[in-house]
């Protein structure tokens, strides 16, 4: 094992790390031990390190006895700080950028910095590592073989519903991030808009001391979360099953049946009646009903 570690370190150290380059560096999402050997090597090479939260990053660096000047770059100062970093790079410095956890630029600051560095004609180097997305997917199962990462949903109900309606017909699994104070509201919105019969994986505090992973149907999500107040604490990743079948399986005749029902009764009743009359799965009928209602409301406004 020691021989393998020494060989790995040697390969890492022999790679070329040019000056005047930004190193977009992934850091652990919770457990400091998840940092890669390459990330540690790169951070030691840097002239300075830009961080989303310099206090948080200082703790990580102290753990591995790395001392480098820190520069704050977060969502409130990203444009200004990005220009400062470009200026430092132009003098020949190597600079790493790290967010609080995981990979910068994925629901974290970093995207504008990358744009600024690229527009300045300077080099960018990704230093990959642990990811909350892939960590959750690895324990989801074969129903999440393909996926769409949707990040955080809008906080306003109407905007959130519109966003979910736009995703309702996607066959691939859907991945969301969510804050603890919005979890119940979000799980209820997922069940209402996507349908209660989809599977959901609720991953909380990934890689941390109080990590928990639970899979159930969307209809069961709220009751599971409220059984224990501790289940609503921490950071969440949600993996939701995609639509089961392509919407093309619905014929024009099926559409006529569904539209007639929607004109006369509520959405839930229209879906129930259409399933009974057509024999098509509730999931597909429900997704199609949402699309028809959306198209109908658009036509009424024009």
From TrEMBL:
Domain RsmI HTH per the UniProt entry, residue ranges: 253-293
Catalytic activity: cytidine(1402) in 16S rRNA + S-adenosyl-L-methionine = 2'-O-methylcytidine(1402) in 16S rRNA + S-adenosyl-L-homocysteine + H(+)
Sequence ranges assigned to domain Tetrapyrrole methylase in this UniProt record: 22-220
Enzyme category, top tier: transferase
Gene Ontology CC entries for this record: cytoplasm
UniProt-listed Enzyme Commission number(s): 2.1.1.198
Keywords: Cytoplasm, Methyltransferase, rRNA processing, S-adenosyl-L-methionine, Transferase
Listed InterPro entries: 4pyrrol_Mease, rRNA_ssu_MeTfrase_I, RsmI_HTH, SAM_MeTrfase_RsmI_CS
GO molecular function: rRNA (cytosine-2'-O-)-methyltransferase activity
Coiled coil: none
Keyword Methyltransferase (UniProt): yes
Keyword rRNA-binding: no
Broad class of where this protein is predominantly found: cytoplasm
Intracellular or extracellular location(s): Cytoplasm
Family note: Belongs to the methyltransferase superfamily. RsmI family.
Protein task: Catalyzes the 2'-O-methylation of the ribose of cytidine 1402 (C1402) in 16S rRNA.
PANTHER family membership: RIBOSOMAL RNA SMALL SUBUNIT METHYLTRANSFERASE I
NCBIfam families: 16S rRNA (cytidine(1402)-2'-O)-methyltransferase (TIGR00096)
Name of the featured protein: Ribosomal RNA small subunit methyltransferase I
Taxonomic source organism: Candidatus Vallotiella hemipterorum
Lineage summary: Bacteria, Pseudomonadati, Pseudomonadota, Betaproteobacteria, Burkholderiales
């Amino acid at each position: 094992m020691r021989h393998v570690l020494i060989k790995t370190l040697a390969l890492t150290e022999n790679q070329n790390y040019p000056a005047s380059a930004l190193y977009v560096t992934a850091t652990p999402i919770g457990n400091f031990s998840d940092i890669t050997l390459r990330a540690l090597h790169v951070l030691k090479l840097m002239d300075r390190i830009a961080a989303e939260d310099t206090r948080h990053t200082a703790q990580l660096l102290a753990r591995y006895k790395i001392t480098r000047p820190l520069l704050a770059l977060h969502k409130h100062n990203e444009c200004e700080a990005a220009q400062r970093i470009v200026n430092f790079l132009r003098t020949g410095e190597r600079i790493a950028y790290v967010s609080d956890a995981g990979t910068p630029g994925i629901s974290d600051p970093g995207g504008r910095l990358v744009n600024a560095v690229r527009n300045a004609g300077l080099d960018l180097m990704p230093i990959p590592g642990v990811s909350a997305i892939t960590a959750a997917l690895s324990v989801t199962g074969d129903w999440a073989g393909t996926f769409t990462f949707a990040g955080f949903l809008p906080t306003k109900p109407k905007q959130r519903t519109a966003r979910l309606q736009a995703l309702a017909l996607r066959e691939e699994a859907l991945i969301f991030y969510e804050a603890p104070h919005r979890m119940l509201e979000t799980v209820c919105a997922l069940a209402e808009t996507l349908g209660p019969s989809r599977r959901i994986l609720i991953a909380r505090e990934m890689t941390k001391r109080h990590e928990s992973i639970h899979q159930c149907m969307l209809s069961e999500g709220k009751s599971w979360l409220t059984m224990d107040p501790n289940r609503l604490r921490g950071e969440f990743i949600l993996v939701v099953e995609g639509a089961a079948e392509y919407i093309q399986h619905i014929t024009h005749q099926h559409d006529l049946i569904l539209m007639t029902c929607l004109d006369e009764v509520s959405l839930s009743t229209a879906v129930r009646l259409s399933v009974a009359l057509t024999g098509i799965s509730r999931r597909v009928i429900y997704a199609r009903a949402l699309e028809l209602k959306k198209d109908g409301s658009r036509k009424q406004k024009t």
